[in-house]
Amino acid sequence: MYCGPPVDDEELLARLPGEYRRLLESVNGYIAYRGGFHVRGACGSPAWHSLREAWWGVDGIHRLFPAVTADDIPFGQDALGDQYVLRNGEVWKLDSEVGELQPLPMTLPDFDAAVRADPDEFLALGPLREFQADGGNLEPGQLLSVMPPFVFKESAAGVTYRAVAVLDRLKFLSDLARNLRDVPDGGTVHLPTDE
Predict the structure, then answer these.
(1) 70-91, pLDDT tens digit by residue?
(2) Per the domain annotation, does 7 fall within a domain?
(3) What is the Cα–Cα distance from 128 to 146, expressed in whole angstroms?
(4) Considering its fold, how many domains does the chain have in total?
(5) Domain that holds residue 89
(6) Which DSSP symbol is given to 118?
């Protein structure tokens, strides 16, 4: 488990909803479940952990994925790079391979309780567990790359996993979602450049 550095972005912290602010005041973000879930913190560095970078930075989540707005708070991500955002007090999940945002009928405390109750099921950590069973390890600042992406029918024949830098994975997923946007089911897609 990774625990974030001390809070050094008080301005950002003050703008957050109460439940998220209280969490960051007790622990300034973390990575849990052996890389399975990352909650971003109110800090300047490391950049991959900074909520400010993910929210308003040059490569902010709303800039990479048009379904996310500048008002959505990108508080966390799972091992594959799917994003979790707060929108009007509710948690929404971004399927990053296709760029689609779906509401989860829960508040942040409800979401936290669901994750804690069964992280492997709720966060769909099967791919991460397979990677780890083969000796793989996600270090802080890394996400799990999957080739071919799960959205491709070819993935049913098997996939390969590797650890990649967070920003590399998110940019790859953004390019993938953009390329898939207008492709009908069963259409042909050329993968964006490798992560």
Answers:
(1) 999 999 999 999 999 999 999 9
(2) yes
(3) 10
(4) 1
(5) 2-180
(6) -
